[in-house]
Amino acid sequence: MKRHPEKLSIPLIVLCLGSLLITALWIIVDNGEPPSPKKIPPWPSDPCKGCRELIEKVRELYSKTWKKQEDNYRNFSSQLRSQCQGFDSAIITQANSPVGSNIVYSAESTTTRMVTPEIFSTFIKENPFPKKIFDTCAVVGNSGILTNSNCGEMIDSAQLVIRCNLPSLGKGYEKHVGNKTDIVTANPSILVRKYGSLDGPRRPFVESLHIYGKSLLLLPAFAFDFCTPLCLKAAYSIRDLESPIRPTYFNPDYLRRLNNFWRSRGLHRVLNRGILSTGLLMVNIALENCANVHVYGFWPFSIHPFELNAVKNHYFDDETANWGTHSMSAEFNLLLQLHSQGVLRLHLGNCRPGKN
Fold it and tell me: Where does the sequence pass through the membrane (predicted)?
């Protein structure tokens, strides 16, 4: 019988190649070879104004593992405490602002208000901050960068959680932003826009605060003159409707010292009309009171720094950005600088629960 070796050679070659491929695959798996890196998406045709350079800076910085620089943190925190004294005076209390004293407004230095018994009754009795340093603190902004971030567990694990400007909680957001709240701020513009300056029924406003439990509600009652009646109405409503939340006021003396602190460091761009954003203000308070400060939800641009997809201004609504008197890109650059110095950790990507 005549053989046809050319017909046998093709299956034999295929069999040998298959065996070699399988062997090579097992070698790669056994050696723990990492998968190919994810392809960086192309830049969109209309990137956010002025953000490309900063995003590239972020990518470069975040390609390296972050590590706290203890000396840098201690030096910075010590300077904040000695020059701003937020430990003792960030909040107006009955102890530091007695009846008959005059309060000078932080953003209107020519405007003053005498403390009357009625106003005095709304002041918290004593300093709400304990004479100790918290181990971990989370300062949570509201940027849409928190959407699908899986940061909720990490945020809630902090000893002290600070949230800005009455954010929406629950409603499915808890996986990404958490629920725990120890301090929450409220800008008067929110009281005007969402609650009609509290001129009508006030129960909807008070009921909206239940999600924050017994936290401190920080109000800038003495920033501008128009803020005072709004913040007092908020405090009276909370008291009259017996809400567990505790209204308190920023001390304008502290805000002036904090402004001077940053001016002395040449950061004039951050201070527009002498006003820091609420978010940056709370980061500074955290740096005075916390050994490890983690910052979430602070991203001022409409494009994600890593995925390059669209990012909403807030994770919980579709409102467009209206920064008003604040220079948010300059403030973000400041936070990025503190992150790079190991003073605080600024979270921009997705979080891995149990790892911080």
Answer: 12-29
